[in-house]
Amino acid sequence: MTTFTFPGKIGDALHQWPVAFWWHLETGNAFDVWLDQTTCGPLKRLIEYQEGVHEVRLMEGIESYGCGGQPWHFNIKPEEHEDRHFVHCGLRAFPQRQLTLQAFEDVPLTLEVDKKTIAETPNLRAPELPKANRLVLHGTGACQHNHQTPGFWRFLARNRGLLESRFDEIVFVGSPEDRDVGLMAYPGWQAWDDGGEFLNLASYVQASRMMIGCGSSNVVVAGALKTSCIRVHDAIGEAPKVIWSNLGSNQRNETELELRGQMEALLDELLTTEVTA
Question: 3-class DSSP state for residue 253?
């Protein structure tokens, strides 16, 4: 049995997931998925729902998260798993390019899919919900990298009126703490609870018209589904922001400063489809 391992946090795993997705499409073979048990529990049901997945396990063995999840091979001893062919999708070193493309470069597989097709094709599926002219928001109280207030909140303050004019619903998602922060700042908007399950989140985002968020796993879900998305980037050391970008023509990753003055035109560009029930 071919087994794909994803040792990083949820966002890392979702960026690396297209390797397994395209391997299944090209080979037609089923496969197992092993995820980090400490960070990826909310992903288990979502990955189980995907075509080609035989079994998903939450595994121990990750010791640190400074560069994705390390060790990227879970300290797996091949002689203890002789019935498995492992494809380890974790980061061997700090990434030098966008995370999905880095994963395709690192794994010992020969896949025929081209970069444009990878970028524009949804690689997750979720149960369908009725479509809505809804904007999904995700912000955290503090940036996990520098512990400062994310630029996402300055972005919302500058664009509140514009967003309210374009969407029938504006809804915060994320942890209870994330949602509370959002509703404290914008009590007239809404919040939605995914119950700690990314399968539920994926269905909700898939049925929405756009997502805007800080650098987090929630915006990676939108990128995988190819729901229009804007990621409001906060600096992560000196690393180029493209490393954490979603792939696709309806995806953007810009700082709050870069987004100033261009939001009306950007919404016109990204909101190209009408909502149908």
Answer: strand
What is residue 5's three-state secondary structure?
strand
Helix/strand/coil (H, E, C) string of 201-233? HHHHHHCCCEEEECCCHHHHHHHHHCCCEEEEE
**What domains appear along the chain, each with residue ranges and CATH number?**
2-120 (no CATH), 134-270 (3.40.50.2000)
What does R_g of the chain's alpha carbons equal in angstroms? 18
Per-residue pLDDT of the chain (277 residues; tens, 9 = 90+): 999 999 989 999 999 999 999 999 999 999 999 999 999 999 999 999 999 999 999 999 999 998 999 999 999 988 888 899 999 999 999 999 999 999 999 999 999 999 999 999 999 999 999 999 999 999 987 666 656 788 999 999 999 999 999 999 999 999 999 999 999 999 999 999 999 999 999 999 999 999 999 988 999 999 999 999 999 998 888 889 999 999 999 999 999 999 999 999 999 999 976 655 4
Task: Tell me the β-bridge partners of 55.
Answer: 32
End-to-end CA distance of the chain: 41
pTM of the shown model: 0.94
What Cα–Cα distance (Å) separates residue 39 from each residue in 13, 47, 62, 225, 271? 10, 14, 10, 21, 33
Number of CB atoms found within 10 A of residue 100's CB: 24
What span, in angstroms and rounded, lies between the C-alpha atoms of 32 and 20? 10
Closest residue by Cα to residue 18 from 88, 110, 126, 104: 104
**Which DSSP category does 98 fall into?**
-
Q: How far apart are alpha carbons 54 and 32 in whole angstroms?
A: 5
| Euclidean distance between CA atoms 190 and 216, whole angstroms | 20
Distance between CA 174 and CA 198 in Å, rounded? 10
